[in-house]
């Protein structure tokens, strides 16, 4: 992907905010509980390696990613901390995982059987394994004690190739004000855990929401994702127990300003027509950069004043109605603060009918990440 370094459109990432969020979370935890920073999907759009560095400086003990390539990228950048892949990896890559000291999530006994053949053949170092329990998320993991226990025994019987490092589950409704389903999942987790005689190094259940609102359930590892980036996992539905500082800003500039006249239209599909003479600004950012096409009507900040997106968002540009003629180069804020006004990733998400996770992850590589502090 070509990065637009000669265009005034930038994602700003405030490293101090990330650190403050990690430190605030750490203060709520007991000393025997570690934090792994969840930095999958390019650290939710904030930049994999820079966030890894920042999170490490703030005291996280390891990292979680979604896919093996993300884990290898972290190793290639020189990090030696534990890395857990939260998703499933094909068993044929077991030796590659072992070679790079990357921990695998395992959901099936058969996976271990296939992996053990390859690991023995390649005389690999032991592969660290976390067993996933599906307590109600319905995504990956053991659902019954039967194959779960047999799998633990298989791990124990193959210590030359496996290091049984963890057991975890993931909640579907930890960010909801209604904890009925959460409690059901926790009960199922406790039931499955009852068959475990020797606990592995890590037993973990907490993403951001679980640690924020159900901290009593925390095991000894927090998989801290969205709250590290300063966003409330519930999108604001549930109040935060401590303040979070949003780390991401998105800014650009007016690249072209013109006056249009009553009846003139703007954009593809002529979905906007001027009701009077008005000033229109063009901004060099579009849906190829991750600004959703359905944001027509959303208000951005131009020089600290809310201005409506008029016409459809194009691939690389969008247009706004200005209150008066403003010069080319005027600052535009799509996410963040300008003067007394602020636009949050949640504001964008609410307008677009999605969640703030999708807003930050959608920002494409084409937009350079600029690190502050
Ligand atoms: C298994 C697992 N744990 C932790 C996380 C981090 O979640 P959050 O960003 O809500 O903290 C995720 C994210 O999707 C996940 O899939």
Stretches where pLDDT falls below 50 for ≥5 residues?
none
What is the H level of CATH, i.e. the homologous superfamily of the largest domain?
Alanine racemase
**Structural class category:** alpha/beta
What spatial form do the alpha-carbon principal axes imply?
elongated
Radius of gyration: 24 Å
The CATH architecture assignment of the largest domain turns out to be Alpha-Beta Barrel
Bound molecules: pyridoxal-5'-phosphate
Number of strands: 20
Major pleated sheet: 10 strands, mixed
Report the CATH topology name of the largest domain.
Answer: TIM Barrel
Cofactor: pyridoxal 5'-phosphate
Catalytic activity: L-alanine = D-alanine
Domain Alanine racemase C-terminal: 247-372
EC number: 5.1.1.1
Explain what you see.
The longest helix has 14 residues, at 180-193. Helix 1 (15-27) crosses helix 3 (48-57). Helix 6 links the parallel strand 5 (102-106) and strand 6. The mean pLDDT is 98. The chain folds into two domains: 15-229, Alanine racemase (TIM Barrel, Alpha-Beta Barrel); 248-372, Lyase, Ornithine Decarboxylase, Chain A, domain 1 (Beta Barrel), CATH 2.40.37. It is an alpha/beta fold and 373 residues long. The chain has helices at residues 15-27, 40-44, 48-57, 68-76, 94-99, 109-121, 145-157, 180-193, 208-213, 345-352, 356-362, and strands spanning 10-14, 34-38, 62-65, 83-88, 102-106, 127-133, 162-169, 202-204, 221-224, 248-253, 256-260, 265-266, 272-273, 278-283, 299-302, 305-310, 318-322, 331-338, 341-343, 369-372. Strands 1, 10, 11, 14, 15, 16, 17, 18, 19 and 20 form a ten-stranded mixed β-sheet that branches. Strands 8-7-6-5-4-3-2-9 form an eight-stranded parallel β-sheet. The two termini are 26 Å apart. The structure holds pyridoxal-5'-phosphate. Pyridoxal-5'-phosphate binds at residues 38, 86, 170, 207-209, 223-226, 233. Pfam families: Ala_racemase_C, Ala_racemase_N. Keywords: Isomerase, Pyridoxal phosphate. Substrate binds at residues 139, 315. GO terms for molecular function: alanine racemase activity.
